[in-house]
Write a sequence for this structure.
């Protein structure tokens, strides 16, 4: 049976091929640590290595053709801010169980709201399936304007749906003031949509979960209900 050190070394070799050399052992802070601290120090080291590799992998999507991954990357706190965050840890919208309408928030963040956000139609059973750039906003299309119906458009720009964001502006404004963030009302649309994701790098995770996640969930639910009420007229 492999020892803890053997398992750690095997995992490390996957993220740092240079350490496959027997003469290149575990990091010194792990090797020299006391037994009861060794596992924690190794976990922190491995999380940093995986976070850096995962961020580089996602950054490559910015050079790809327009699609789901390219739309997601710029709107996530982890990738927009070049800080050494731990991408090992799930974000609050995946793990916070007690927040109202958590599922609504999860559906928007995971691009699963196929009947609400047109660009999320990758799960719809259509043959042939519409290309990403062809998933246009039906409310703007009815007025003679052809524009991609992604979450940024549906939340911040579409005249038929941005009214929900306007209704929540005061709550989001209070949230940015509470966490000493740039004022919500003067933020760019990308920054507004990032509030639905993970906490900014300098914000305590627990405080964000308690204060921000419920508001984000309520907004996601209100957006779905509003768009659902519009669909019979399309």
């Amino acid at each position: 049976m492999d020892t803890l050190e053997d398992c750690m070394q095997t995992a490390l070799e996957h993220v740092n091929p240079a350490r496959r050399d027997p003469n290149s052992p575990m990091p010194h802070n792990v090797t020299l640590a006391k037994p009861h601290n060794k596992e924690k120090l190794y976990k922190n080291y491995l999380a940093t290595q995986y976070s850096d590799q995962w961020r580089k992998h996602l950054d490559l999507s910015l050079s790809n053709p327009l699609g789901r991954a390219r739309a997601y990357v710029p709107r996530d706190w982890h990738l927009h801010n070049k800080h050494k965050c731990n991408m090992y840890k799930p974000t609050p919208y995946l793990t916070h169980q007690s927040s109202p309408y958590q599922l609504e928030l999860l559906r928007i963040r995971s691009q699963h709201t196929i009947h609400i956000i047109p660009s999320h139609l990758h799960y719809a059973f259509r043959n042939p399936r519409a290309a990403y750039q062809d998933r246009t906003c039906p409310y703007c299309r009815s007025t003679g304007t052809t524009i991609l119906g992604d979450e940024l458009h549906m939340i911040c720009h579409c005249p038929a749906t941005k009214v929900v964001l306007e209704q929540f502006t005061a709550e989001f404004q209070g949230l940015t003031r509470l966490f000493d963030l740039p004022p919500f009302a003067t933020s760019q649309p990308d920054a507004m949509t990032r509030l639905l994701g993970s906490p900014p790098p300098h914000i305590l995770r627990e405080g964000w979960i308690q204060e921000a996640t419920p508001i984000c969930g309520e907004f996601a639910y209100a957006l779905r209900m509003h768009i659902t009420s519009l669909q019979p007229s399309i």
